[in-house]
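Record 1 of the preview.
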Amino acid sequence: MRSIGPEFIEDFVKRAKDEGRYSFRGRISSKRTHSKRTFFDIMDHTGTLQIVIEAAKFQDYKTITSIPCGSYIYVEGIFSSSRIPPELKAESIEIISKQELPISPTPWEINGLNLEHVDQIFNFTEYYLANPQRAAILKIKTNFVKALHEYFENNKFTLVEPPIITDKILYEPEKAIKAEVHGENVFLSQCATFELEPLAMVFGKVYTISPAFRNEKGGSRRHLAEYSHAKAEALFVDINDLMSLAGDSIYSAMKITVEKSKKELELLGVKIDLDSLNPDNYVSMTYDEAVEILHSKGSKIIYGEGLARSDEIILTEYVNNKYLWVKFLPFASEGFPYKKKPGSPHLSMTCDLIAPHGAGEMVGVAEKTTDIEEIIDNLIKKGKKEYIKHYWKYVLMRKCGLPPHGGIGAAPERIIYGLLGLNHIRLTKPWPRYPDRKINPDKEEKLNPWKDKDLDEIIRKYSLE
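->
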């Protein structure tokens, strides 16, 4: 296939020879002038190329050097790798598309990690996605998701496609996002377990990395209403198998991610501690042991409740900020398909991996029940009896030969948020959905707050405001 689209700076620099004449197309991220020479920096997600413009070579020097940052240009010139970043000494320059709105600051003039720029960045996401820090985080997450795909495929898991529109929810109704499709009241998927289990009966081992939705209203820095859910399901596994799979998949994928994301990590000033992420260095304790430790440290947790963020911090600090498995979580705080712990029906055959430094739950694993009466009893105790028809065919798989099985689940956004030490999980999504940020535009929002004359004319012409 012939090459299409833009040439990336990284590839251009690899093929270009010193003193050779080349052309390049790219977007201006910054510019500066020294005496009779102007420098444009062209930046993409792979690197930076410096364009050197000498006044003596251009009759329209003032016009060219006034091209705004954010514009795309076509440059022809002589390449040099003797400086960092590499240079293209311009002989001709053409404007491909011009940045016309007087938006300030530009994406390249701010640090996208700083809280002071939140409104600037998320009020015009389409424009500020070009911010180098934001782009670096998104690229790291992309590399991680790709590495997860490779891990599961290499371990003979089959990629499957569960629906996003569903009639079943795993957790509380108030945390579900409702929708209407073809006149039917439905939900956006909270979890793909209802589909992965029957698919596992077909393929043995399956996985998906697909959208999931929860109506989170608490304004937590760790939660989003829309996120990616990496889930895997396999037959003939127990909780120890699942813990091994979860730890190994994340560790293996992150090793590849670190190797492929060196420039992005350097830009962010982050060094990921791969040694601490090695499953051999995880610590494990039971929920009962965790509650005992928490009470000794002054926590007000009531036995049978789930762990609060403050509890997770206490526990990870107790184990010297190592990754911590907490096993046999209270059934009351878990999903109804999960198997109860033999001899302790108030507990479940589940386990959460807690990341240190307040990052929280990184991955969860669960054995699923194969007993039809147990799952019906669980449904009733979880308040879902009136919706039994919605779950009935899923329940009936226990009468169709469903063998012992279990699954793991993790959100790549939460993993990247924790490992990069970000101040908010919203930085891991291009268009994050969280309670503090409205999806619909404000009624008072102006179409042209920059008072651009050309844009004013367009708005008047079409009576847009």
